Structure of Sodium-dependent transporter:
Amino acid sequence: MNDLQGSDQWRTRLGFMLAAMGSAVGLGNIWRFSYVAGENGGATFLLVYLFFVLLIGIPLLLAEFSIGKAGQLDAVGSFRKLAPKTKWYLTGLMGVIGGILILSFYSVVSGWSLFYLYKYITGAYWNEPDGGFGAAFGAWISNSYAPLFWQALFLGVTIFIVMRGIKGGIEKANNFLMPALALLMIIMAVYGLTLDNAMQGVKFLFTPDWGQLSNPQVYIMALGQAFFSLSIGICGMLTYSSYLKEKDRLPAATVGIGLMDTLFAVIAGLMIFPAVFSFGVDPASGPPLVFITLPTIFESMPLGNVVGIVFFILLTMAALSSALSLLELPVAFFNRTLGWSRKVATLVCGVFIFILGIASSLGFGIWSGVTPIGDNGILDSIDYITANIMLPLGGLLIALFVGWYLPKKRAARFSEIESQGLTSVWYFLVKFVIPVLMIVIFLFQLGIIDYLIELLLTM
Ligand code: PHE
């Protein structure tokens, strides 16, 4: 075992909160939220999403934090400590694998963001390149080597920070990244709202089309987005809370983090959709939304080049603060459960993730014929498996662990909620409501409920 075990902690509770917010606010709020909301009905999606965040997301986040803080160890170690001689640690192991998988494609998209930042700084994208932004983006991502360089650069920075540990690396970085991010985002949203036709975007985001509520796809995607965006179900938040000092309480921090993440998603929507509408772009244009449509928009905006630089700085910083938590998750496991030094663990995980990520990157070029799930390419397939299957499954297991494995008294004590009434509400949600809702959505996802309905109708 080594020196860092147990001794490295957040310096302050605020530092922990900023880091956890940093984990939550990321490409998920800007890149993923905007295209998933765009494809799934805008305001209706937002409504279902908010409902899931409040009912499932925040209570589960507290459950995850409770396990980490009580266990004081990494994803696997904490479960082993709280539930010795059981298989519950597999939940943590699935999280470690999930973290590695997510960061493998996350770093590819982050690399694109870094590259776009570079293009804006050099002025190359201030004017539409030959053939348009769509073609330029398509040509760029289908390259075999260049995107790998930017992915490696991004991962290099992530590795550099995680190697320095919690207090000296991750906390310090987030203390700077998060306030800067909040400021830039508010400036961008206010600017977006001053554009012509901005109200149409606001309407798209806030006026639900009630008919969409009967579409199960909206629920499946909103649940996946809630998990992805709050970073829950994967034990990354558990890992972060394990570095808390005993005196730092969980509940208020949890609610703060959940609300901030949601606020950021809404602000990102306010930043993107008004612009999308004011320039007549299809909000359902999918994953390339921020890389194709936004540059088109920036070009025709007053001061668009400055806006472009600011936007891609923001996107890259948001991605970085999330990547830190994704890398810390396996690093903590190798460091604390397997006893590797933090340096070696960080390097080995980082390099492994880079190699794995090559597949996601090549999936847009020479491997574009590889479609593991439906007609989804490699990146989208890994995104789907992690966000829509592994994260919700991890969340379900965490709810079952806290609600059914731990004795009620212990669970209540770990949650640190002071009021008896609130403890009961939280416990009821975690024990019954969340598992039932999640199982129903899983059954929908697997098509089992559709099948049963059809069966009933034909009887
Ligand atoms: N929440 C991050 C985002 O919104 C992604 C993430 C998922 C980070 C899971 C850590 C764990 O971009």
Q: What stands out?
A: The chain has 19 helices and no strands.
